Amino acid sequence: MRYQISGKQIDIGDSLQVHVKQELGAIVQKYAERPTEASITFSKDRHEFVCESSVHLSTGLTVNAKAHANEIYDSFDACGEKMEKQLRRYKRRLKDHHSHRATPVETFGAPSYILAQEDVGDDAAEPDTLQPIIVAETQTKIKSLSVGEAVMQMELAGENVLVFQNEGQKRVNVVYKRSDGNIGWIDPE
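The structure assignment produced for this chain is given below.
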């Protein structure tokens, strides 16, 4: 597994990198087969250290976790516990989907835009146009998944919405978390 361990405006020592590789390697090997890469980023938020981790699995799924603590090692340990809990929770489902999937998840590119937020308030002037201002334009990957895999990927990534290509119909679909706690699925015809 490839590791990318970095710090945002803080120095990451060699002993922390060794600790991260050993602990994360043990967690991922215990619950997932053939992880491909892991990205761990440390940062400081006021008095706390923040650890954000993302592990990409060979099945095409991604597991994300984030934790805060007063010490940098504690932030990673809390993040590792969250990731272990997610992987343990979905271990059976991951194995079931992996046994049915002989090839990695297919992806295709699509443009992705970041729009400027409108000023909202009592003093905000009426906009001249309803066209949003594009701040950034990037390319994103849309995965080809079954609905069950899409729900699992959304939950593992800790996201509220996931756009994917439905493997069955080859159409773009959306799964999302509803305010009542259930999962919504949009399947346009």
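Interim note for the steering committee: The chain has two domains: 2-98, 105-186. The helical segments are 14-31, 72-89, 91-100, 147-157.
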